[in-house]
Amino acid sequence: MSLDGLVIHALVDEFNDKLLTGKIDKVYQPEKDEIHITIRSNKNNYRLLISASSNNTRLHLTDISKKNPISPPMFCMLLRKHLQGTKIINITQHELERIVFFDVKGTDELGELTEKRLIVEIMGKHSNIILIEKSSGKIIDSIKRIYPDTSTIRQVLPNMTYALPPSQNKINPLTALDSNPFANIPEDYKLSEVFRFIYKHFMGVSPLVAKEICYRANVDMSSKVSELDVDSVDRLNTCFKSIFTDIVNNNFSPTIARNDTDIIAYSAIDLKQYSSETIIKGDSMSNILKDFFTQRDILERIKQSSHSLRKTITNKLDRNKKKKVKQEQQIAESHKRDKYKIYGELVTANIYRLEKGDISFECINYYSEDQETIEIKLDKRLDPSQNAQKYYKKYNKLKNTAIYTTEQLKKTKEEILYLENVLFSINNCSQIDELDEIKQELIDGGYIKKVITKKNKAKTKANEATKPRHYISSEGYDIFVGKNNNQNDYITLKLAQKNDLWLHTKEIAGSHVIVKLNNDEIPDKTLEEAAMLAAYHSKASKSSTVPVDYTHKKNIKKPNGAKPGMVIYKTNYTIYVTPDENIINSIKEV
Question: Across residues 331-358, what is the average pLDDT?
């Protein structure tokens, strides 16, 4: 996803509507390559965010402010000198490129009228914010200075004359609407895929928009240009002109396509290619971009903050899995203990035949149906009675080992299931508060150590208010899905009434699910939807035929000392479902 020429066109239209004739009030630089400009226009205050970050390039209005450094950077001071108090007189886009000009008028320190131009170049790692004298085109400064040793093609330095980035010789779609855009395709593109030809040949068109044109034209985007027949070319022309006619007339449809956890795409036009996904319409392009980048920032923070937690839990999980293998081997070995008891009995039965110093003897195994002859080894240092006792002791040791190890294996399996639940919850966090809850749970459980200050305690208490997912079934029943162990405990032990339905994937890490029944019998459709949600919000979300246990809440018990989210139950039934995103998306989420 990127800010293509269509998105920039929509933004410029929005800026002209809201910012034109506005007065620049303040300039801030919260990040090394990010500028915030507050503008007073038509009795409203706006905050314009401009980022030249190579990984986070963007340009839009926002209501989110960031903490500013105590000492403003030099470029921020320069912009304050030249821009604060000026009036925005013109906002334009260079053709359909990702270049925006903000022209301002004000007075200099001598009281004379001057015009400056703030240029925003959205070009990935080459993005820049440049201030120039409009009349002469001389560069005053830029947020990134480009020296000859960085680029021999184009330098951006104070006192140099500003030059546009090198042209890529692409066709401007806005000037090609009166002709046949797909006529006379250059030979170089004949073997290209259709969608690739569209975004490489036309200015400001991203791969996303190129695919949208192919989708609307019902043309296979991966087919070769040389394979297009006359009818396909006509359909491509029609769809191409339809989209860019709307752009020329400033008819935009700011849109986000998203799934349950992430934004798939965004654009200034309808994304009909994602009709099966959740489509959200925005009232402005800025709000669409703000939502996208805010979510991406949150996910990045969660990723960074959860790294050490994930590593800690993964290491403990690996150790417990190795312990489980050893315990199972010990139990398997202990199952051979009965032969040692038989050896002890046979030594005792034949004690009259044996003497100290014997290393073995043969006898009939009276405890076998076949009554076969077997050889029993003896310790020559022990007398016959002591040899018999040695075998009895070995039998009893293995018997006790089996009892103890079986109990320990049960605890190890519970620990593995708990850790898998924690890891599942970490991987599915969508808010920092949810991650903080998990971190606090691990601190309380002794899995990680952290000094808790009063400030941190207050923060943790506040974070306990995070809410589980809430769905409404197609038949109108409330369904709650926990996002982590704390929420699982809450919906199961506090929210649910005794006759509500409880669901969970069978012996698979995942969320608790509660269906509020109000003493009704659960309809089959709602049961299927609830089971689908339980399977989807579990470690088995990509599997098929997932077993989901269900029972009434009254059958759920939490043993004393059990870890968060861990319960036991009885009198349950099992339903098998295959998670389907289309069905999940059709269930209304509140």
Answer: 91
